[in-house]
Amino acid sequence: MLTVSGGVVAEFGWQPRARRRVWREDPGGEVIAFSDTAGSVSMRRMATEDPRIAPLPRDEWDERLSRLLTTFPRGAEEPMHIFTTLARQPELFRRWLGFGGALLSGRLHGRLRELVILRTAFRFDGRYEWAHHIELGAAQGVTTSEVAALGGDLSAVEWDPFELAALTAVDETADDGAVTDATWSTLAQRLDSGELVELLMLIAHYIMLSTVLRSLRVQLEPSAAALAEGVAGGPPA
């Protein structure tokens, strides 16, 4: 979830169609995810542990990171862990900010962009991105009931057919690794070739962020965690 503010690029940002997911805790306090699809069952253990790589302490922030953090409402008082963690690889961090910023200020309509990001975060268990894009989605007109549907059953809301096709593209990518011809045909009625590429890159970028942040065990900041807790649906805590 990236935007451009004052010339500085800044980062603020499943349930398959035929899949059922159940969450519970084992006696050791770890969350276990069960999901079954077409008769197959898989189990994934999700430990609630400390970050694998600690965020950079304040005395190690360089000028770029310090300026970046000041563009956010809570600034350096509650620095975003995604930045202070990924900044440990400074050259890659700098280039990633530019790429993410390009996607968040691209040609896709803001509402469509946020719908796709939220659905991708949900489908790929990206709770960090999910939490930070709740408010960004609201700023683009995404309603509370729509957020709940994006974080659960899409059929709970009557979507515009074009928006539904974009969300279906996320689900098809999660289920099968590619968008089907039928969904592509619907999207191509409204998006030109460049926008279609951008949509696919947007989905892929938030798949990457969701999986990287989960493997790093990047923790939500208290304010973002509270926001996510107050919204129905979404990836598990």
Distance between the termini: 19 Å
* CATH C-level: Mainly Alpha
Total number of helices: 10
Mean pLDDT: 85
**What do we call the CATH topology?**
AhpD-like
Q: If you compute it from the alpha carbons, what radius of gyration comes out, rounded to the nearest whole angstrom?
A: 18 Å
Strands ordered across the widest β-sheet: 3-4-5
Helix content: 40-55%
List how many beta strands DSSP finds. 5
The CATH architecture can be given as Up-down Bundle
Write up what this structure looks like.
Mean pLDDT is 85; it is low at 1-47. The protein has a single domain (2-15, 49-229), classed as AhpD-like (Up-down Bundle). It is an alpha+beta fold and 237 residues long. The two termini are 19 Å apart. It is built from 10 helices and 5 strands; from the N terminus they run βββββαααααααααα. α4 (110-123) packs parallel to α7 and α5 (127-139) crosses α10. The chain is globular. Strands 3-4-5 form a 3-stranded antiparallel beta sheet, with no helix packed on it. The chain has helices at 63-69, 81-86, 90-104, 110-123, 127-139, 144-150, 161-176, 181-188, 193-216, 222-229; strands at residues 2-5, 8-11, 19-25, 31-37, 40-46.
